Amino acid sequence: MANFYTDNPDLKLHLSHPLMRKIVELKERGFSDAEKFDYAPINYEDAIDNYDRVLEIVGDLCGGQIHDNAEGVDHEGPTVKDGRVTYASGTIQNLEACRKAGLMGMAMPRRFGGLNFPITPYIMAADIVSRADTGFENLWGLQDCAETLYEFGSEDQRERFIPRVCEGETMSMDLTEPDAGSDLQSVMLKATEQPDGTWRLNGVKRFITNGDSDIHLVLARSEEGTTDGRGLSMFIYDKKDGGVNVRRIENKMGIKGSPTCELVYKNAKAELCGSRRLGLIKYVMALMNGARLGIAAQAVGVSEIAYREALAYARDRKQFGKAIIEFPAVFEMLAVMKAKLDASRCLLYETARYVDVYKAYEDIARERSLTPEERQEMKKYTRLADALTPMVKGMGSEYCNQNAYDCIQIHGGSGFMKDYACERVYRDARITSIYEGTTQLQVVAAIRHVTTGTYKGLMDTYAAMEVSEQLKPIADRCAAMVDLYEKAIATVNERKAEAPELGDFMARRLVEMAGNIIMTYLLITDATRYQSESMARSAEVYCNLAESEVARHSEFIEKFAPADIACYKA
Fold first, then answer.
1. Tell me, what's the pLDDT at 142?
2. How far apart are CA 488 and CA 480, in angstroms?
3. 426, 434, 429, 395: which is closest to 408 by C-alpha?
């Protein structure tokens, strides 16, 4: 039986990144928990060993039961009756196995029953689970909603709800509505305060992942007469209190094991989480950033299984007297798939590390005042995480879809049949570039880091890092790509006077140029740091891809006349 952690050496390599020492020390606060909890680490090495052992448990469970159940869950799916959801039998088995293994509430503090994991090893677990069953990761992964409750809820709310998540209860985030998808400021679910301080919720929510969960975080309109985001607050709804029914489960293309629900709130009792009017502008933004990192991990997991399915088939399938992997048209596709996978994963874990540092400082700030140096460092890593999160979600999910497409292509006609897992992988992949903000919305979030220079600053940082002799030529090619990137930005800025829309029109191209360059740098620096031949090979292949993409975008921008925008309008 495969272990989806130990059969992928690159995962463990990322645990040895130098920044992990700072992350662990910040997270563990001098390892004081070791005096209260027998499973708490006593030092850095013990903490890394702890993450490694837990991830091995995740890998074992995923390589066996969760992976083996995936096809049956896809066929059976969840059902709804009398307003309640019943999971597919395989999903029920998977959730129970995760509960028994203590894999719920991984990132929550030990005092609430969690494992106190940093974001990085938790995201590794999400990567592994997604490879096993993409839809199941949506149920297991929504435990990260507890992070929002931990950050913004009262101590009483933390003590009542977070231990339940750590014991295995499920969560959902109830944000979207029939007339409020990406435009969440249009949410109209009504919240009415009661004399006893509780609230009642009335309205409809749509496209809610795991909508019949035990504990819900709900975005609702608390301020009478408002129509924008300033009238929205966040609420906690407990399923035990009743008042919410599932009207239907959406009939989806993929991730069929994950029930996507339409919910009807009828005078449902709820309690305010945090302060009024900050539901969208503060709490949901934090919630969505965490969710987007989770979807990026999901996309990497899908890219992984797509690549492995394609590789196995190409080695086994024979045509014209030899395995098809020996044909250049096929081995070139596989090499590009692996390069996109490795580039996405390097960017994913770089982002997770940045999130870890600033989240740790935010948590410490709840206990004491930060020093000026700590505040400055928190600000730095917040900015970097804010820059890379939309990039890894946007580009990682697009690469995931491309890898799933190529997996089908390598299977040929067999890939179009349900006899092979790649058909399900292809369907599951499609949602990653849509939910928690489409790729186009990720560009909107990322473009300001082009204009403010955050991405250029990262490029300069990576350019100054040590690279092996083997990879120095790629570093030189990266520098040439940076020149094209800067020239493209200057060209767009110069021409915006003629066409103010030009900046938004070219945003995708500029963000993709930045992503191509940053991922190439990450591959060569990580390949050098970890002495990984696999990453070094991917760096060679990915640099070729990145160069062609950067040159293509650069040429398009250079030759594009502002007046040409009119040709694109309906």
1. 87
2. 13
3. 426
Question: Residue 460's pLDDT is what?
Answer: 98
DSSP at 464: T
The string of pLDDT tens digits covering residues 505-558 is: 999 999 999 999 999 999 999 999 999 999 999 999 999 999 999 999 999 999
Whole-angstrom distance, CA of residue 95 vs CA of residue 75: 18
Mean pLDDT of 457-463: 98
Closest residue by Cα to residue 210 from 269, 138, 149 = 138
Task: Look at residue 4 and give its three-state secondary structure.
Answer: coil
Angle subtended at Cα 428 by Cα 426 and Cα 434, rounded to the nearest 5 degrees? 110
Structure tokens at 557: 């921008």
CA angle 352, 550, 547 (to 5 degrees): 90
Neighbours of 317 (CB within 10 A): 15
Identify the H or E element spanning 170.
none
Q: What is residue 363's predicted lDDT score, i.e. its pLDDT?
A: 96
**Antiparallel, parallel or unpaired: β 215-221 and 244-249:** unpaired
Could you give the CA distance from residue 134 to residue 564 in angstroms, rounded to a whole number? 41
Q: What global pTM score does this model have?
A: 0.97
Q: Output the DSSP codes for 54-107.
A: HHHHHHHHIIIIIHHHHHHHHHH--EEETTEEE--HHHHHHHHHHHHTT-SSTT
Measured between alpha carbons, how far apart are the two ends of the chain, in Å? 55
> The tokens 């990026």 sit on which residue?
296
**228 near 212, Cβ under 8 Å?**
no
pLDDT at 570 over 80: no
Residue 182 pLDDT greater than 90, yes or no: no
Both tokens assigned to 237:
């709804």
CA 136-258-446 angle, 5° bins: 85
